[in-house]
Amino acid sequence: MYNKSMGREILVNRHHILYTRNEWNDKTLSKTLRNNRGLIVNMLSDVHNEMHKDENLWGGVPLLGKTALEYIFNNYTQTDKVLGNIAALMTLVKQTDDPDKEKFLEHVNHQLSYIRQGIVEIDKKRGHVRVGRQPTSSEDFTKNLM
Fold this sequence. Notes:
Layout: E1 2-3, E2 8-9, E3 12-16, H1 21-24, H2 28-34, E4 40-44, H3 45-53, H4 66-75, H5 82-94, H6 101-118, E5 120-123, E6 128-131, H7 141-145
């Protein structure tokens, strides 16, 4: 990808918040959520690669049960802000009774420091690229986005 304003190339990867691919793509409902464009983050490739080397993230995001996935699918509303979409997803997961919800939330929360550091926002109309978004405080991520 080329950034006109800075005059340099930026290597970008698309990060699916819900991974591993094999596990999340196994069923239609989980595959649909995983591939929702609001839950895919454009990230600097070096930060994305570093994130996947983090042994705390190796196992992937735990796949939730059918009831929880249906609840999320039926209540999730996508916006044009990927960080807000992640916050909305986490809020919906908190409202479920899924036995793996705490592991799910912990795993997604662990991804957020990498996402904040490496997120790439692309404005194709203006030819602008903004890289990285630093957290505003040490408060819970979802409180800052709602």
